Amino acid sequence: MTTTPSIELETKNLCAFFGTFKAVSDVSLSIISNQVTSLIGPSGCGKSTFLRCLNRMHEEIEGASISGKVFFKGKSIYDMHDPIEIRKHIGMVFQKPTPFPSMSIFDNVIAGVRLSGERNKKVLAELVERSLREAALWEEVKDKLHTLGTDLSGGQQQRLCIARALAVAPPVLLMDEPTSALDPISTAKIEEWLVGMKGKLTVVIVTHNMQQAARVSDQTAFFLSGELVESGNTGVVFTVPKDKRTESYITGRFG
């Protein structure tokens, strides 16, 4: 018997503004639980802005606003009063690695957990190892956990940020072009991690790399000029897209 996939995140008629400029226009999209969804499209098409709306980071920008709805597990996140609480459930990894300066690798990983009040040293140590293993970084740093996170290479720093996000056990992780500044080896490690997390974590990733989207994602959504052109199973979108604009973008005719 085929089971209906559960929806983790859903937007309905979502619009995002910078002042009077509409960067995202009337987007309705369902994000399936425990799958990787890629957001693709040319620069400036609204995909990163859309991503930031999913955990209320868009509103942190001066003059920014939204209309429409974003639902997490069926509840409207913009009707909840504390955006920090939302971000405990919907984590974020940015394009540029952002390890906390003047903090060790160990302390970087558990920063969010400590804010929640956890102080048990054994629990924290186990959490650091588990999170670094999940982010495919443990073997590289296990003997230098108390050195600065900023001393790591760019690719290692990005995986450290992934481990930090995973430590608070969010069911959803948003990733804004997480490999765009990395070398091929680091990119491959993060892609391997993404594939390995399928079935365990809901991931929404913005990427300009068509090959990456094809390799790692279950679902793909194509954005153009702030609008959602089409979305669906990645294999279908890439091989038999419904819209000619999607085909033109994927085949490199524009973008």
Blueprint (SSEs and pairs):
Blueprint: E1 7-18, E2 21-32, E3 36-40, H1 47-53, E4 64-72, E5 75-76, H2 83-89, E6 90-93, H3 105-115, H4 121-134, H5 138-141, H6 154-167, E7 172-176, H7 184-196, E8 202-206, H8 210-216, E9 219-224, E10 227-233, H9 234-239, H10 244-250
Helix pairs in contact: 3-4, 3-6, 4-6, 6-7
Folded structure, characterized:
The chain has 255 residues and is of the alpha/beta class. It is built from ten helices and ten strands. The termini are far apart.
Low-confidence stretches: none
**What is the number of strand segments?**
10
SSE class: alpha/beta
Query: Termini distance?
Result: 41 Å
Instruction: State the CATH superfamily name.
Output: P-loop containing nucleotide triphosphate hydrolases
Name the average pLDDT: 93
Order of helices and strands: EEEHEEHEHHHHEHEHEEHH
Main beta sheet: 6 strands, mixed
**What is the correct CATH architecture?**
3-Layer(aba) Sandwich
Strand order of the largest sheet: 6-7-8-3-9-10
CATH class: Alpha Beta
Features:
four-stranded antiparallel β-sheet, alpha/beta, globular, Rossmann fold
Summarize the structure.
The protein is of the alpha/beta class and 255 residues long. It is 35% helix and 26% strand. It has a single domain, classed as Rossmann fold (3-Layer(aba) Sandwich).
